[in-house]
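fwd from M.: "can u put these together and see what the complex looks like"

so here's what she sent:
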Amino acid sequence: MTEARLPSDERSPADLAREAEELAARVRAGERRAIARALTEAERQSPLSAALLRALQKGLGRALVVGFTGPPGAGKSTLVDAYLRELRRQGKTAGVIAVDPTSPISGGAILGDRLRMTSTLDNEGVFVRSLASRGHLGGLTPAAVRMIDVLDAASFDRIVIETVGTGQSEMDIAEVTDVRVVISAPGLGDEIQAMKSGLLEIGDILVVNKADREGAERTYHQLKAALRMRTGERATTPVLKTTALTGDGVAALAEAIEKVGERRLAAGPQTRRRMRARYLIARAAADLIAEQIRQADTEEIDRLADAVLEGSASAREAAVRLMAERLRGR
Ligand SMILES: Nc1nc2c(ncn2[C@@H]2O[C@H](COP(=O)(O)OP(=O)(O)OP(=O)(O)O)[C@@H](O)[C@H]2O)c(=O)[nH]1
Ligand SMILES: [Mg+2]
């Protein structure tokens, strides 16, 4: 990343392709500097990244992608750290992407995450990257998806993604991960509320972390009850208790992840990669629509707005009409 480079527009497609092939080969060989560089290119969606991702495609879809999500302060980073230790104990390797919390309260947690995880675990078998910057083309989750491909190509056995469960991002993450671990903890105030707002549905495994804390039992039973309400008596989603600080319950969590993971991996690499590509298409479509609407002239929008007000078209019909008009000929 420190080497001098020509501005992107001065590199020919052939140069980019050659550079991408070289970098891809080093990533496949597991070279840490190359992985770091490739992650940065993928995150920024640089001119090189498209060629790089193409060069990396062969043989992808091997690694199991595990998402850890939950409200701020539930102990996600600490638990990821403990899970990584467990993986290392089993001789498995892991790449981690900690996605920037969207909530301003967690602003300081990025550095915390980076320090906490890298100081203890950034070694041969583990690679940690915080996705800390915003405003890149296409948003955080598409960037994370591109980064998954890089880590996958680097042959990490497990890829872990940590996201804060407060907005759209964790729902997006649900679409691109194989196994979803939803973490709660006692004493967060509205932890069950947060769970009810959709997190419960996406979890393959629910975790009550900080089991050492008072109130953990209560949180556990609340979760169980909420789960039964959602899915009926036949609720099969495991609810586990962990104390990330000591590692208690983490081996059982790792085992539960493997169990779900086995089922998901059975779908085969192509199906799982397609799931991620499908997500990228949906995101691109949404971006395209938003862009088209921004570019539509006021007259066109006003005409449709009047139609909605008069009741001659629903908002949805108006949107379809707007898109049809604007995308015609593409
Ligand atoms: N008592 C207790 N504290 C814990 C446990 N796990 C994490 N903590 C503490 O909870 C606090 C938050 O932990 P983090 O791992 O940063 O939580 P997080 O969910 O990653 O937080 P954000 O990334 O900011 O959303 C820290 O002070 C941890 O030391 C646990 O099992 N027991
Ligand atoms: Mg964290």
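replying to her w this: Residues 279-327 form one domain.
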